[in-house]
Amino acid sequence: MENNNNNPRRAFLKKAAMGTVGLAAMNMGFSAKSYGRILGANDRVQVGIVGFSNRFRSSLVPSFMNHAKDLNFEFAAVSDIWNRRRDAAEAYIKSKAGVKIKKHRNNDELYDNKDIDAVIISTADFQHALMGVEAVRAGRDAYIEKPMAETMEDARALLKAVEETKKIVQIGSQRRSAPNYIAANDYIRSGKFGDITMVEMCWNVNQPGRWRVPEVKDLRQEDTDWDRYLMNRPKVAWDPRKYLEFRLFWPYSSGIPGQWMAHQIDTVHWFTGLDHPRSVAANGGIYVWKDGRTNADTLTAVMDYGPQNDMTKGFQVIFTSRFHNSAGGTKELYFSNGGMINLDTNKISSEGGLTKKMADEMGMKPNLLESATLPNAAKMETGANTGGDPMTSLHMRNWMECVRSRKTPNASVKAGYNHSIANIMTRTAMETGKKVTFDDTKQDVVVS
Hints:
Blueprint: H1 8-18, H2 21-27, E1 45-50, H3 54-71, E2 73-79, H4 83-97, E3 102-104, H5 107-112, E4 118-121, H6 128-137, E5 141-144, H7 152-165, E6 169-171, H8 179-189, E7 198-204, H9 226-230, H10 240-244, H11 256-272, E8 279-285, E9 298-305, E10 315-322, E11 330-336, E12 339-342, E13 347-349, H12 356-361, E14 372-373, H13 390-405, H14 413-432, E15 436-439, E16 444-447
Parallel strand pairs: 1-2, 1-4, 2-3, 4-5, 5-6, 7-10
Antiparallel strand pairs: 7-11, 8-9, 8-15, 9-10, 11-12, 12-13, 13-14, 15-16
Helix pairs in contact: 1-2, 3-13, 6-7, 7-14, 8-11, 11-14
């Protein structure tokens, strides 16, 4: 590892995890003025792009542009350490928004631009949390793609930074802004559904190229900044696959838990008010796509949820995912004794509920939910292939409105912190083959 005295940015990242990042920000040259300007009601919000990723191009740009004119937001700059992506961002935003944005080689340069009010962070998974720390400590509001964090150290650093700076941060868990999920949350919390007894979730595709990036053949080390890319991860030799196909490799991504399970497990926390599983057991491996990846192409996780102080109450969550057979697609099914909610069809039904015949045998009353469609639940895309979808568009608008109003966004940093706990517990359980719990006092995972 290099001497932190010769690399102030690496020192900054280390101090971020230690909770002393405010002082680090000042020592790096972030002046009080760089902590963002005060926005008037009619001021245009200038937004910086942190990482011109495929996700940003396909989904976040169209979602942003759906509301930019109405809410007076504008793209103003891009920060990307790969020169090719900087040039691509400049051309793309010019074609879509009709504006010429400033190009910055890194985030230090971006935050020296005092006109930038907020940023959208869409970089490698492991960078989200620490780049979020950089943003809020530099006085900028942020939309940060999920997963929020892939280690507890990074998750704690961002939670602390947002709580201290009071900046507006939206995590990209877009289900929180979708009308069908909002309706499901209201219905469950009303008590009409009864106690949740089990949740089954799956996310299946048959895509050899999933998370593979053809551009990897064009990436040269001299055209980017490998040291900046690694941030607080171990210093290793240049590898263009780990740079662009990061989702396939730990410690740059957990793969399935952070990318896909994060979306679905977030709804469990939201609907129940529970912060994390009580325990997780998981198994998986690379069974089909043996292309050098280190993250699993198949995963099954079994989680126990419920109050920490009452083990007689709770329910089970089963999450499965595979890359090599798409049967089942993407599903989210919530069960009670009286029936189920299917969040693919947005239907409430008595399917599987306690029938009169079975109840009579035990001297009990039947328990069957009244069939219904979730109110205000226009079809939201929940499949594994998303673009500028309605769900992300609504989520982006919520963040933009909160930047204006200073209200807490739908997917707060605490929600992102909680899904990060579940992701980290799952990855740890799969890696160790042991049951994993969470220590609320230490705010860390525990391997049994």
